[in-house]
């Protein structure tokens, strides 16, 4: 059986990424796919991009990778752009949209937020019709059939749901989880590139990492939006949440 680790939403959090990669290596998982948002909100986007380039077999574009690699009027974006430098920004701007392949007879399709856009946010509690739309294809993919397994990041909430024989999963967030303050990723196991039905599984993994070290790095760098970032890392509560 083949195994693929699926990571997403690192957001410049180097200690979290290092802890997840150590866990992946300890489990002897040979392939790593990254579903985007390598950069911001944390202080180490430059080092994260470099490490992802060295360790991930496939990387796709997230919404942060997209808008930070473009001109902006926001000072916080300028800060992250300066940290990244032109070569990394070019790398981010040229990332592909998605990944698809067959595994144990199932068409697997991965994307950052939806099969249509890096910016279309769909939560695990949204109406079933919206979640079912994540199995659809788009002009970004070669296969136009609905996916048997669809996986994404973006919402920083790890979960697995089943709908009439199709499976939807979210890998959660490595560097900015918003339900449990531990790094999250997924492992897919099955027969890689096989259209013949065989055993298949999805495992969601939680990894402890040094949150206070991640915060210290942000403080030392004089990172913008520091208070909101610290709140999210320590409490796993979204900065925009009301009440």
Q: Which secondary structure elements does this structure contain, and how are they paired or packed?
A:
Elements: E1 2-7, H1 14-26, E2 31-34, H2 45-55, E3 58-59, H3 63-68, H4 75-93, E4 99-103, E5 106-110, H5 128-132, E6 149-152, E7 159-163, E8 166-170, E9 183-190, E10 201-207, H6 211-220, H7 226-235
Parallel strand pairs: 1-2, 2-3, 5-6, 6-8
Antiparallel strand pairs: 1-9, 4-5, 7-8, 9-10
Task: Give your account of this protein's structure.
This protein is an alpha/beta fold and 243 residues long. It has one domain: Metallo-dependent phosphatases (Purple Acid Phosphatase, chain A, domain 2), CATH 3.60.21.10. It contains seven helices and ten strands. It has helices at 14-26, 45-55, 63-68, 75-93, 128-132, 211-220, 226-235, and strands at 2-7, 31-34, 58-59, 99-103, 106-110, 149-152, 159-163, 166-170, 183-190, 201-207. The strands form two sheets. Strands 3-2-1-9-10 form a five-stranded mixed sheet. Strands 4-5-6-8-7 form a five-stranded mixed sheet, with no helix packed on it. β1 (2-7), α1 and β2 form a beta-alpha-beta unit. The longest helix has 19 residues, at 75-93. It is globular. The termini are far apart. The mean pLDDT is 96.
CATH class: Alpha Beta
Mean pLDDT: 96
CATH topology heading = Purple Acid Phosphatase, chain A, domain 2
Quickly count the helices.
Answer: 7
Note the gap between the termini: 46 Å
- Which range best describes the helical content: under 10%, 10-25%, 25-40%, 40-55%, 55-70% or over 70%? 25-40%
Count every beta strand, where a strand is a DSSP E run of 2 or more residues. Answer: 10
Shape, please? globular
For the largest beta-sheet, the strand count, sense and barrel status come to: 5 strands, mixed
Helical/strand content category: alpha/beta
Computed CA radius of gyration, to the nearest angstrom: 17 Å
């Amino acid at each position: 059986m083949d195994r693929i680790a699926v990571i997403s939403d690192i957001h410049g959090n180097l200690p979290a990424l290092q802890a997840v990669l150590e866990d992946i290596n300890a489990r002897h998982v040979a392939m790593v796919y990254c579903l985007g948002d390598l950069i911001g909100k944390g202080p180490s986007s430059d080092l994260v991009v470099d490490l992802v380039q060295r360790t991930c077999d496939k990387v796709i574009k997230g919404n942060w990778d997209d808008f930070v690699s473009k001109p902006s009027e926001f000072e916080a974006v300028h800060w992250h752009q300066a940290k990244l430098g032109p070569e990394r920004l070019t790398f981010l701007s040229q990332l592909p949209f998605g990944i698809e392949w067959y595994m144990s007879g199932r068409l697997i399709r991965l994307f950052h937020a939806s099969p249509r856009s890096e910016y279309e946010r769909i939560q695990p509690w949204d109406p079933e019709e919206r979640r079912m739309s994540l199995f659809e294809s788009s002009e970004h993919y070669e296969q136009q059939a609905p996916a048997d397994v669809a996986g994404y990041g973006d919402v920083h909430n790890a979960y697995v749901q089943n709908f009439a024989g199709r499976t939807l999963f979210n890998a959660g967030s490595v560097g900015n989880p918003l339900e449990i303050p531990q790094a999250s990723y997924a492992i897919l196991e099955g027969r890689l590139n096989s259209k013949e039905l065989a055993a298949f599984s999805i495992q969601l993994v939680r990894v402890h990492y040094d949150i206070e070290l991640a915060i210290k790095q942000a403080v030392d760098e004089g990172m913008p939006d520091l208070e909101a970032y610290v709140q999210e890392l320590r409490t796993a509560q979204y900065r925009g949440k009301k009440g």
